[in-house]
């Protein structure tokens, strides 16, 4: 028997080194494995191929070799052959009660039960999580994937590769997820007679996690033996293909608790999983062959999780698993019990055992599961798109209507396909200005399931017309609540209606008296979809009139104005405490001050004031709201930074330093917040035309520069201030532009860490990273200001002209109704 196992392993390695397709599998199949028991005098019965699926029959014949042989005595063999002869002479009459008359082991595990290799139907019972049961009549070759596809179709579930058939043994406290290629009938035939074993249909999201992420993200470094450096630089798909083609997975190692056979004692050993089997060291972590003890052969065992490890087996933790040899049908004798320290370690070991046992077959299962459900046997085929029961409908109005004109139906279908293509393209990218009004209408209005202001009676009549099929649903506007929606669905042959109230996100914004903060507060508060409840704060409430005017009807409805000074911890805490449940979903740090001019003319107090607001103000705000965000494991922290946080600009020494500080602070903090599902985004504008900037430069022009040398004062006044005015008029954005970018950032599903609002400055900041020595960027800026100022002014005027033309085009598009 050992020679047969070695022969099979050699065949498995040759399969891994090939193209991993069915043809290669059939061509490389050795005839010696077709009947490994002939030499023992056993006669193999011919298996009738599945009708219409010869490929599946051959694949089944290969997979059947893993089942254990049953010794059939000659007298019993003669009786079975006579019964088959008599039954074959009778006419084929369909069985109206398969659950009562079928000899499936789930109902009658008697010794006279028919062999699972026979091609007749078998009844398999599968339970759901709520205890309900479905009986399926399947052939002997039905795999776990086929069963999942059948149940997904019957239960009207969404097809997903995570659906699995779980084998559960309650009396042993064992369960395992069947692999997609395993024969469910064969597994069922191995159950003990009269037991409580059963199949459960449930989702297992860790089933193919290895193929969705990097293997090194699933397995910690200390568990993977060998040199992982050789695989660095490879993509995830290349890494997986290398392992599958070579057929050699890295050695898995780590500490596990092992239960001694026949005793309740658990001891801790260092285990090694290799192609030849599972071993443990009797001397620490030594790999010396003298200290290694053979534990189990994973190729001849199935790995199960312990559901009641502490109660039934006195396990030291709740994360136990075991290896159950294929030859064991019942009882705990022969079970190889193991226990890990945590759930991650147990998942790693179970995944590694599956990989070592099945190899490339797992990856093929994953690829097949992603193709969607397939139709097997005599199931009802899916409806064709040309089915006469399907009609095109238009839901663009208040009520739906049937489109009778075929040309109009084709036009609507093309428009819908084009709109979805556009939505998919721009899902994770910032939109152009022409897309602004598209999102304000609400993406739900573009969906086929949205029916506008449909009445309750019309809704019920429409669902009844569909045949009262469970799962049919639609969403409509609520006639009682102006901001709500109603979900109407058919469940258990009844129509039910549920009110949906949109959940507003609580947004706290600092520095809202003018400029970017004012534009941000007004933009979010007047959002067409009413997604935000805005708490706009400012240090001096006497300056609130501009914000109140910009908010309009949103004031005291979706916008509240509060007093907050970012330089005072007491003021910050007092403001946050007034917010219901202290819930801040989005924190936008906007408050800031500027300081420009020669360094000799600036006092230390002025410099400290800049850092007190621009840096420590942000830190105080984050410290106040971060603990609550961590408890909820959600949140988004937005910081209005600057391109000067990436690249310093002359005469902005202290201001740039404060922005550099906040960039470094957030860059370090983001690694902690990611653990709690909290996003941090640094929004980095270039020049913005605000009262803040205007006031800063007006004060600079009136400043006293007697403390610096005349040449420096001349450079500041005649070069810097002069060029700044032209830069702001040519490249400057408006506060509304920054607000629009911020709105897009906070509504993204996955927000970026950095975002520059002005694409003109992207190459400028990229110069810094192009040359680590820093010579490139300093020389470019120096020559641009002092040697090629004429060229710089010409470039600025050209950019200004192009932006003016672009604005004219956008205005024309708005007039024509395209935006």
TrEMBL record:
Region feature Disordered, mapped onto this chain: 30-54
Start and end residues of each PH domain: 249-358
Similarity field: Belongs to the GRB7/10/14 family.
InterPro entries to which the protein is assigned, alphabetical: BPS-dom (IPR015042), GRB/APBB1IP (IPR039664), GRB7_RA (IPR046986), NAD(P)-bd_dom_sf (IPR036291), PH-like_dom_sf (IPR011993), PH_APBB1IP (IPR039665), PH_domain (IPR001849), RA_dom (IPR000159)
Species this protein is from: Pelobates cultripes (Western spadefoot toad)
Subcellular location: Cytoplasm
Domain SH2: 449-541
Protein name as catalogued: Growth factor receptor-bound 7 isoform X1
GO CC terms, sorted: cytoplasm
